[in-house]
Amino acid sequence: MAITLANLDFSPAVTLFDANISVGTGRLELGHTAERQALLHELDRHGVGRAVVYHRHADEVSPIHGNALLRQWLHPDQRLLPLWSALPTDESLTQITELHQAGLVRAVRLSPAAGLPFTPWIFHDLLSWLTTHDLPLWIALPDRDPAALVATLRNYPQLRVLLTEVHYSHALIVERMLAALPGLHLELSRFEPLDGVRRLIARFGVERLIYGSAYPRYALGPIAYYLHHCDLDRAQLTQICSGNLERLYEGVAS
Question: Which of 47, 54, 56, 40 is nearest to 17 (CA)?
Answer without folding.
Answer: 47
